[in-house]
Structure formats: structure tokens, C-alpha cells
Design goal:
The chain has 631 residues and is an alpha/beta fold. It is built from 20 helices and 30 strands. The protein has two domains: 463 residues, ANL, N-terminal domain (Rossmann fold, 3-Layer(aba) Sandwich), CATH 3.40.50; 121 residues, GMP Synthetase, Chain A, domain 3 (2-Layer Sandwich). The radius of gyration is 24 Å and the shape is globular. It binds adenosine-5'-monophosphate-propyl ester.
């Protein structure tokens, strides 16, 4: 089986093969990789418990596949061009050979600090090459990485460290983000006051902040890698051994640790990377995500490196020092495939064409979108002004839980339709279900998006709580993986994602549970109760609207500022509400359930048509909220 699809006809026949003979199909893909021991059984699965195993009996190390395997013919090829936050600072690059040595040195350093196969290592880092080295060093020795986005607060970091019982954390003294610097090390120090499992902190000197270092616990990155051997044997991992945990939000409770395993994740990230982006030898790929999210894991680190690609990694933000930064970087490195989020496209679109026109974007061949639905205006702007109408736009739908891209065009080999993610990749069997859980077979319909057959990079469990995995993803519709999204399938079979159908909101491509934000608000002593909903936002896709019942006579601006502080403190500034309305009560049913449907409508600007309100305990509350709503 060819790894690479070269035409729509080939896509159709590969898709057919992947559905009729999935095991043979994936065997053919897996054979392109280096296994320490070949697998005995390709797949065993059931979606009830659930239990999903790919390539059982096989042994591998993913870093051998993305480093050692390439060295004979790519040792001097650049793996990453690193672009600093400030364009006046020097950029740098790292070759495959250098990356191999850096990874081995840090692997040995981790071992010297007592890290063994199976131990969890937390990574709380800026967008620098050492972050990639850290990820790969964990994978090399079989430690399980758990990356926490460096925009999360110390409380959120502590929750994730404690849930994973991480033994070590790799961080930096601080990071550069646009015009600001963020002090990471003191956030770590604060988090560690409530974590017992961490034995060591490795700190990268990134901004020369001279942080305080705790004796016997904290070590400098540059000191611990000094004098380490340039080689480190790659640990033999079983296919189903854990590769990483990544925390993500759901509709209830605290964020859960999505677990991905070695063999299947390796196959699928490489396969999807090469086909969706149509990466060719010598191309330069750039994914603008942060390594703290799944997009960074799969399409900055694993997919591209497994494919022997050269990529760009960028420390900064799209609008610093000005709105031309992305395009300047594309021009500078002659980027061929560019992958970003709709929120960035919309923000840059609002800045006009002048910043775009200063740069030569003729190297671009494929441009991608991920993380949230892309509206038609943004799609057209992107296609016309960035892709110059010659680059296909790949609108890639997937999730932390899916590990890799599920629905998307494949470069210029697929038909395109603005705002439609498109067709499933080979091996992916999506279905739409009606509210009774029945499959809707015809086209031109809308339903709950589920997947009915396993694929190699799907989540295996939620860390430390398998029951939660079952309840969240496999219990809504028996026999299916439930995505949490609603979708339409048009007459040609293309999928268009409508959005989440649960209490998850997607703000600038960042995923939050409304309950998680409410919990953070409710820690504020002024707050009695709160309800959070999403509302359409021109740039962010969705904004956060919080209705808060308060117990205080203080000035409302002071209260709102303190509520924002509570959210920043518990989760991070990325989750702060855009609008806060202080209310005297929430619309509830007689049984005490908040009628979120009404609150959502009010946040969307609706004044009166709230549907059936006969079960409301106090209909007057609705009128009060409407009359004071923030539009
Ligand atoms: O609602 C879908 C939306 O993002 C959710 C997954 O979020 P997360 O796990 O953080 O992963 C984001 C990056 C893969 C999905 O349930 N989503 C993701 N991609 C798209 C999308 N919505 C519409 N179109 C997309 N291309």
C-alpha cells in the first residue's frame, strides 16, 4: 500500500480498500515504518468498554522512526527553522543530526534524574526548539509526556500535574509573547506548592530572568545536558504503551487526560500529514499552533518529523510587531504548506491587505485551517489573498481525542467547497445519527457526528479514569465514538461541521467546558452562582458570556474585574469572559435546572422568542436579564 495518495481516484480506491479490508490496509501503511518487532495482531476492538488495540505484539520507538531512520540520508537536512518572537533577534535552525544529539543528551539527563519508562513528565514551555527536544527525549526513554499550554495558570498546571502524578517538569524561566514576557518559572514554583509528585524541575534559560532555584529540586537545562552522551538507546515500546497524555475540556468536570499510544498514533500522524498537506521532499511546512495543543503535537512534532520534513516553528504571535508577521515568515522561509486557525485568519483579515501585499507568498502550495468552523468570508479571503486562488484550502476537522485529521481535502486532489471540511480520510468511517441514535444513511442531512470504526490514532482512555472515557465518548450512542459535534452531509457526501452540541465552547480555537469556567467564577467570594454560554464573536468564533448572581454591594466594575481575576487564576487569561452580566437570578425550571437555551439566545441578542418557557420558575427573571443584556 502506497503511503501517498496522488489523485482523487486513488483516494476513492484507497478509501474503499480501507473500509472493506481495514486490517490489510493499515498493515500496508505500518510496513513503511521501522519496528523493533513486527506486530502479531493488527486490530482488536470493541466500543462498549471500550477496548481498542492496534498492532498488538509490535514493538517500536517513535523517535527511532523520526530521527535514526532519517539519519543515513538526511543528517544535514534542517528539521526546524526557529523564528523568534522579535524579528530583530537572530533566528536559528537545527538539522536532523543535531536534533538527534540534543534529544539523546536530554534523554540521558532525564535518566540521570531517575526518570524511567512509564513515568510521567510534564512540559510547560515556550515555542522553542528545546520544547521539541523535551518531547522527543521523553518518547526516546519511554516516559509519558504531558504538555501543558504555557498560557494556563499555575492552578491549572497543578491540577494537570497532580492528575498525571508527574515526576518531573521541564519549563523555562519565561517566554516572549508579542510585546510581553511571561514569567513561567514562578508559575511552576507556585503550582508545586500543591503538588507532591514532582521530584525535579528542569529550567531552560530562555529570557535570562534569573529565577529562584530550589536546591536539590531545580536544575538548569543547559547544565544537566552538559557532558551527556550524544547517543541514547531508544527504549523498546509496545504498540499500546502510552506515548502521551494531553488534557482537554469536556462538558463536565475537570479537564481529562486524553491518552494516546505509540504504534497507532505514529502511523496515523505520518499518514495524514503527508496526504492532507501533500508534503513533497524539499518542501517547507509551517503549522502555527502551539505545542501545548494537539495540533502542535501531531503536526509540528510527530507528523512532519516522521515524514522527514523541514518545518518552521515560531515563538511569537501573528500580530507582532505588525499584522504582516505571518506573511513575512512565509516569505522568509519560502513556506510551501501553511496551517493555521480561523481565528488568526479573521484577525488578520480585519487588518486589511496592506500587510499581505508586502510579501511574496508564491511559494505556498497548500493552505490549511483547523480548530473551529471557518466562516465563508474568512475562507474566501484566505483562498484569494493568501492562496492567490491557486492553493487548495484544506479545512481539517479533528480533535484532541482523534489524534489526527479525520475529515479534510487532500491537497489539490480533492474537490473543495468553502466551509466544508470535506471527505473522510481513508480508514475513517463517520456517520450522522439522529436524536434516537439511528444512522441517517441518505445525503443532504444533518445529525450528530459519530465514528463507527476504530482508527489507529484514536484515544484509548482518559488517564486514570477509564469509566470517564466510556461515559464521555462511547455511551451516548452505543457502538459509536461520539465526537460532540453536529454536522451536515451534503448531496456529494461532503461533511460540514456545524459546531459543538454539548456544553463545550470553542474560543479562538481553544476548547473550554462552560462548567469549568463557571467553577472558576464560583470560587470568587462575590459570586453566588453563575452560568456561562458561548455567543458568536467576529474574531474568536465564539466569545464567553457569563451571567453571575452576586452577593455584594461593591461597584460592579470592581466585581467584574475580580471575577476575571478568578478565571485567570484558576484557568488562565485565555478563558476570561468577554462579557459579564451581573444578575439577580438565573432562569431555572421548577426542578432547579438552569435553562441555558434561554441564556444562549439572550447572549446572541434575542429579545423575546425563547420558545417554551412554561416550566420556568420565575419568568420575570428572563425579562430582567434581557433588559440588562450586553450586546
Ligand atoms: O468542534 C470541533 C472543533 O474543535 C473541536 C476539537 O477541539 P480540540 O480537541 O481542541 O482540537 C482542535 C484541533 C484539532 C472539535 O470537536 N474543530 C476542530 N477542527 C474543526 C472544528 N470545527 C470545524 N471545522 C474544523 N476544521
Amino acid at each position: 500500500m502506497n503511503l501517498k495518495i496522488n489523485s482523487f481516484g486513488q483516494y476513492l480506491s484507497n478509501y474503499e480498500e480501507s473500509v472493506t479490508n481495514p486490517e490489510e490496509f493499515w498493515n500496508g501503511i505500518a510496513e513503511h515504518f521501522t519496528w523493533k518487532k513486527r506486530w502479531d495482531k493488527t486490530l482488536s476492538w470493541e466500543f462498549k468498554t471500550p477496548s481498542i488495540k492496534w498492532f498488538e505484539g509490535g514493538q517500536l520507538n517513535i523517535t527511532e522512526n523520526l530521527l535514526d531512520r532519517h539519519l543515513p540520508h538526511r543528517k544535514d537536512q534542517i528539521a526546524f527553522h526557529w523564528e523568534p518572537n522579535d524579528p530583530n533577534d537572530s533566528d536559528s535552525s537545527i538539522t536532523y543530526q543535531q536534533l538527534y544529539h540534543e534529544v539523546c543528551k536530554l534523554s540521558n539527563a532525564l535518566k540521570s534524574l531517575g526518570i524511567e519508562k512509564g513515568d510521567r513528565v510534564c512540559i510547560y514551555m515556550p515555542m522553542v526548539i528545546e520544547s521539541i527536544v523535551s518531547i522527543l527525549a521523553c518518547a526516546r526513554i519511554g516516559a509519558v509526556h504531558s504538555i501543558v499550554f504555557a498560557g494556563f495558570s499555575s492552578n491549572a498546571l497543578a491540577d494537570r500535574i497532580n492528575d498525571a502524578e508527574a515526576k518531573l517538569i521541564i519549563t523555562a524561566d519565561g517566554l516572549n509573547r508579542g510585546g510581553k514576557q511571561v514569567d513561567l518559572k514562578s508559575m511552576v514554583d507556585e503550582a508545586l506548592t500543591s503538588c507532591n509528585s514532582i521530584k525535579h524541575v528542569i529550567t531552560l534559560d530562555c529570557i535570562h530572568a534569573n529565577p529562584s532555584m530550589t536546591e536539590n529540586r531545580d536544575v538548569w537545562y543547559h547544565e544537566i545536558i552538559e557532558n551527556q552522551s550524544l547517543d541514547c538507546p531508544a527504549e523498546a515500546m509496545n504498540s499500546e504503551d502510552l506515548l502521551f497524555i494531553l488534557y482537554t475540556s469536556g462538558s463536565t468536570g475537570k479537564p481529562k487526560g486524553v491518552v494516546h499510544t505509540c504504534g497507532g498514533y505514529m502511523i496515523y500522524t505520518a499518514y495524514s500529514f503527508q496526504n492532507v498537506f501533500q508534503y513533497h521532499e524539499g518542501d517547507v511546512f509551517w503549522c502555527t499552533a502551539d505545542i501545548g495543543w494537539i495540533t502542535g503535537h501531531s503536526y509540528i512534532v510527530y507528523g512532519p518529523l516522521l515524514s522527514g520534513a523541514t518545518s518552521v516553528i515560531f515563538e511569537g504571535v501573528p500580530t507582532y510587531p505588525d499584522a504582516g508577521r505571518f506573511w513575512q515568515i512565509c516569505d522568509k522561509f519560502k513556506v510551501n504548506q501553511f496551517y493555521t486557525a480561523p481565528t488568526a485568519i479573521r484577525a488578520l483579515m480585519a487588518c486589511g491587505l496592506e500587510p499581505v501585499e508586502q510579501y511574496d507568498l508564491s511559494s505556498l502550495k497548500v493552505i490549511g485551517s483547523v480548530g473551529e468552523p471557518i466562516n465563508e468570508e474568512a475562507w474566501n479571503w484566505y483562498h484569494k489573498n493568501i492562496g492567490k486562488k491557486k492553493c487548495p484550502v484544506v479545512d481539517t476537522w479533528w480533535q484532541t481525542e482523534t489524534g489526527g485529521i479525520m475529515l479534510s481535502g487532500l491537497g489539490d486532489h480533492s474537490p473543495m467547497n468553502p466551509t466544508h471540511a470535506g471527505y473522510p480520510l481513508p480508514g475513517i468511517q463517520p456517520v450522522l445519527l439522529d436524536s434516537n441514535g439511528n444512522e441517517i444513511v441518505e445525503n443532504g442531512v444533518e445529525g450528530y457526528l459519530c465514528i463507527k470504526f476504530p482508527w489507529p490514532s484514536m484515544l484509548r482512555t482518559t488517564y486514570g479514569d477509564h469509566e470517564r472515557c466510556k461515559n464521555t465518548y462511547f455511551s451516548n450512542y452505543e457502538g459509536y465514538y461520539f465526537t460532540g459535534d453536529g454536522a451536515k452531509r451534503d448531496e456529494t457526501g461532503m461533511y460540514r461541521i456545524i459546531g459543538r452540541v454539548d456544553d463545550v465552547i470553542n474560543v479562538s480555537g481553544h476548547r473550554f467546558g462552560t462548567a469549568e469556567i463557571e467553577d472558576a467564577i464560583n470560587t470568587n467570594s462575590n459570586a453566588i452562582e453563575s452560568a456561562v454560554v458561548g455567543y458568536p464573536h467576529d474574531i474568536k468564533g465564539q466569545g464567553i458570556y457569563a451571567y453571575v448572581v452576586i452577593d455584594s454591594s461593591e461597584n460592579s466594575d470592581t466585581i467584574k474585574a475580580s471575577l476575571i481575576d478568578s478565571v485567570s487564576d484558576k484557568i488562565g487569561r485565555i478563558a476570561k469572559p468577554d462579557k459579564i452580566q451581573l444578575v439577580s437570578g438565573l432562569p431555572k425550571t421548577r426542578s432547579g435546572k438552569i435553562m441555558r437555551r434561554i441564556l444562549r439566545k439572550i447572549a446572541e441578542g434575542e429579545q423575546q422568542n425563547f420558545g417554551d418557557t412554561s416550566t420556568l420558575l420565575d419568568p420575570e427573571i428572563v425579562e430582567q436579564i434581557v433588559s440588562n443584556s450586553i450586546l
